[in-house]
Amino acid sequence: MNVMTNLVAFDVTRIRDDFPILKQTIRGKPLVFLDSAASAQKPRVVIDAMVQAMETQYANVHRGLYWMSERTTEAYEAARDATAALMNANNRSEIVFTGNSTGAINLLAHSYGRGVLRPGQAVVISGMEHHSNIVPWQMLRDAHGIELRVAPVTDAGELDMDAFAALLEDGKVGLVAITHMSNVLGTITPAERIVKIAHAHGAKVMFDGSQAIVHRKIDVQALDCDFYVWTGHKLYGPTGIGVMWGRKELLERMPPFMGGGDMISSVSYEKSTWAAVPHKFEAGTPAILEGIGLKAAIDYVQTIGYGAMAAHEASLTEHALARLAGVDGVRVLGQAQDRGGVISFTLDKAHSHDVATLLDRQGIAVRAGHHCAEPLMRRFDLDSTARASFGVYTTHAEIDALVDGLVRVREFFQ
Amino acid sequence: MNVMTNLVAFDVTRIRDDFPILKQTIRGKPLVFLDSAASAQKPRVVIDAMVQAMETQYANVHRGLYWMSERTTEAYEAARDATAALMNANNRSEIVFTGNSTGAINLLAHSYGRGVLRPGQAVVISGMEHHSNIVPWQMLRDAHGIELRVAPVTDAGELDMDAFAALLEDGKVGLVAITHMSNVLGTITPAERIVKIAHAHGAKVMFDGSQAIVHRKIDVQALDCDFYVWTGHKLYGPTGIGVMWGRKELLERMPPFMGGGDMISSVSYEKSTWAAVPHKFEAGTPAILEGIGLKAAIDYVQTIGYGAMAAHEASLTEHALARLAGVDGVRVLGQAQDRGGVISFTLDKAHSHDVATLLDRQGIAVRAGHHCAEPLMRRFDLDSTARASFGVYTTHAEIDALVDGLVRVREFFQ
Amino acid sequence: MSPSDSFDDLRDLYQEVILDHGRKPRHAIRLEEFDATAKGDNPMCGDRVQVWVKFADDGIGRVGFEARGCAISVASADLMAETVQGRTKTDTRALFAAFRDMARTGTCQACDPSLAEPIERLAPLSGVHEYPSRVKCATLPWHALIAALDGAKEASSE
Amino acid sequence: MSPSDSFDDLRDLYQEVILDHGRKPRHAIRLEEFDATAKGDNPMCGDRVQVWVKFADDGIGRVGFEARGCAISVASADLMAETVQGRTKTDTRALFAAFRDMARTGTCQACDPSLAEPIERLAPLSGVHEYPSRVKCATLPWHALIAALDGAKEASSE
Ligand SMILES: Cc1ncc(COP(=O)(O)O)c(C=O)c1O
Ligand SMILES: Cc1ncc(COP(=O)(O)O)c(C=O)c1O
């Protein structure tokens, strides 16, 4: 990877200026934030968009017949347009806003799981899912008699595609719900192949794109999948908003998840009727300010461009893997061919919690634990790892600081 | 009501300075915002708290082993303490955060409704509920064989307490889910009496306090109720966060609603176990920034004090009712004894939508429509009303502007 | 309010013609003889309209309606009835498309010149574009009319 | 890293005594003879500990443990075993309350003066209060110990 090319295409110094928090120091040391996979920092444009909404035009949305409400509705609904464009959705009404990815997957597990799948059918997940893409399907299994099948992960941390295909053989699988990028291993799963195999066996496909959408351009029509979920706070947007994209004809077949204001067409005690999609799935006052913030985040990401972001992160990841390989006692989990900027590792002399705390003493923020992926940890006989993850603002120098920090931790524990 | 006393206790001019948006003009006219019951404006302290979190210490919460994550966790969890104190909850772990009131009621309808209530039991709502406190119970009825009973509303817009009591006679009612204040009529329901009657018949009680908590000090222990829900954006907080308070022993008996990260104790494919309350009910990355904003809103409200707020609103309401009574053709809906600062009305010469739009032309924001309470509208043989509602920042002069505006609209339609 | 108070601020949206047609609609009658009829319903705001059509040759002879709703929806129904009278069905559909465009955006940029005259008559309603949630008030009667032309009983909601 | 690099920034939280007890715990043994035993489990971070207790007179004779977890939890278990030896059960409970207070807040303000000496020995762990999510690492072995005193098999999670 030619660093010079990147420097031209991607001026990380300028990008860092967009994020007020990066000027912070921790214990007198410059902040080295390497936990973007848990939640990304927010650029000034996102902060400003939310502030501006609250200071100049805030009101509740939909059905307000006055100026501010109309303008706020437009601003909120513009987030739907931006999201549809970001994912190349066919139709803006295919974009359903939820509270986060977890809310999106639960919506699907209820509305598609209980509403469309029939007892006796099966759902396939993989061995590298986040708890948010495991537990809702377990709850569906226990409540609705759906079988839960798990596609195994290879030692390299990739999806075992033969085993995956075998799980679909009997034609009982109604839905495949698989991560598009592991939040532990960084592995990007072969989405197109997954869809081809699943569709060939009559199964629909949902991708958990919580991590993937931060690193790769997502085109749901090119992927040809049926549902795609992600979460705003990891894509430089605010907390409190997530996205479920679904094919319109599927959304229309699904019963609503939550009932209440905004999702109805008419209400009487005997019977209520539902609004058209996507509103059918959005009960109550929506996350208005968060939608407005998310729109700003999407615009921000689009301005930088996925090409530049992916190249920058590929360069960071390559650098990090090379440098970590040079530290005695560091073991990186997973060696997938196709991977994004998330790296889990262990250190021989120290528990990952001690590693994280001692890096924090040096101003370096990494995450440690099971990363909400206990079954994957168990697959690799681990309780926890430390994890460094990268965003648009991450620098090569920060990776060097991490490596130096790890060397110090190891010496300290010697 | 002695206006002078209020002026001393409550300096509305100073309060208005706290809300940046109130400096806005609409079509060159000063903004008269009378739609706080739909969603309230945000004071600077709320905006600042969210900005400050994003600019100086943002990170994902819970299990982050580094400084920023620990500080953000503290700030987010401080919202739980503030909420518990606001409602006089017995224990901070009785506070569950959701996306809004609607999310809170749906949580209850699922976790308590399907998890604890048994088919054949009944739920009682009232004839003046918001759709958010109707539809979830209808969905429960249809999915789980729960009977839905509706306590009627009198011509004065109050709860018919004899009829209510009669609905509980047969002992089949497991839960009473009733509004604590109508978002259409302004009626405050007799909460203590409702609880006494319900408990005497073995039923639990949930109050929908979405409106009430904006106008009255809520003490869940004094009310002796079992669940109490409300929504942050109406109490001067951000969108994207709601509250469900429940008695700890009930929360502990309830299965979780959504599954995912943060709500588990351990996960394996065979079986997952749940975190302790309240985390069992909070799946996925929470509304972190919104919690921080809500904390600031609660502090703001506590500083003003419910006594002063309620007195101010009582004075506004009295003034508005008196002045509206003087406008030909205006009919106010409901004449409850105990009421808060929400007034619905119709004008003889103009449809409520035209009223709202024509008031907007004069810079005055009111809401018009069924206010997400279609069955209540039907009870009064109406399709829609216009509605003015008040907040801490509302002035007597704004009510005068509304009345003048209505007179003009009526003349215009003459 | 002083008697000299002008209503300019109100009238820029509710022009005299809207007030007039809203107050005294000329075509608010249930036709005794008709060839088609359909209802439109906007559950969100409670507006309801029924439209009756009597054909003449291959065009529209006469339109009558009953409406419950705001001044804008009543005026729009009445102006519609007036404007489509004597037009072919094809023309009427084209006019609806143009009108909807105008109601949403304030102008009808892509309008066929042949529609200039009827669009001009409907232009007083163009101000609703500032209030997206009221656009449906103006288009609801049209949806019912088109449904009637299609032989449907009810306008499908947008 | 130059050899002159000091570890002051790391050592203010991980004092030498923690590193030492974490690396070479003296009491990390499963007692062959014991009167009570209990497990502690922190599923959130995977820490696991088992504690064995042998009583002497009405007090604690000896404590052994097996722990899987971070340096802080192992050091805490070892310091605990060392400190409670020879104390009465009542004393031990009081000491746990005081220690938990210190782990959460950094100091033990309301501490009984009689606990000054043992609290002093446990004080190197007080720095965890800066990391609320690590407080449990330090208190987990104590929870297991108290569970054993209570005759329970497992510490109930906080
Ligand atoms: C009485 C009442 N209940 C419930 C709600 C629903 O609140 P939210 O839309 O925030 O879920 C509202 C407000 O819209 C309300 O006024
Ligand atoms: C792969 C993956 N799926 C799902 C989630 C859940 O996202 P959220 O917590 O925003 O619901 C995350 C992040 O926590 C994730 O990394």
Could you please describe the fold and organization of this structure?
- The complex is a heterotetramer, with 2 copies of chain A (414 residues) and 2 copies of chain C (158 residues).
- Chain A is α/β, with parallel strands linked by helices and 414 residues long.
- Chain A has 2 domains: 2-43 and 305-413, Aspartate Aminotransferase, domain 1; 48-302, Aspartate Aminotransferase, domain 2 (3-Layer(aba) Sandwich), CATH 3.40.640.10.
- Helix content of chain A is 41%, strand content 16%.
- Chain A is built from 16 helices and 17 strands.
- Chain A has helices at 3-9, 12-17, 44-56, 67-87, 101-111, 135-144, 161-168, 191-200, 212-215, 220-223, 248-253, 288-304, 306-325, 352-360, 374-379, 396-413; strands spanning 25-26, 29-30, 32-33, 95-98, 122-126, 147-151, 173-179, 204-208, 227-231, 242-246, 264-267, 272-274, 330-332, 342-347, 364-365, 367-369, 385-389.
- In chain A, the strands form 5 sheets. Chain A has a 7-stranded mixed beta sheet. A 4-stranded antiparallel beta sheet of chain A has the order 13-14-17-16, covered by helices on one side.
- In chain A, strand 11 and strand 12 (272-274) form a beta hairpin.
- In chain A, helix 3 runs antiparallel to helix 12.
- Chain A is globular.
- Mean pLDDT of chain A is 95; it is low at 1-8.
- By secondary structure, chain C is α+β, with helices and mostly antiparallel strands.
- Chain C has one domain: Sufe protein. Chain: A (Alpha-Beta Complex), CATH 3.90.1010.
- Chain C has 6 helices and 3 strands, in the order H-H-E-E-E-H-H-H-H.
- In chain C, helix 3 (71-84) runs parallel beside helix 6.
- The model of chain C has no long low-confidence stretch (mean pLDDT 91).
- The chains are: A alpha/beta (414), C alpha+beta (158).
- Chains A and B meet through helix 3, helix 4, helix 5, helix 6 and strand 11 of A and helix 3, helix 4, helix 5, helix 6 and strand 11 of B.
- The complex binds pyridoxal-5'-phosphate (2 copies).
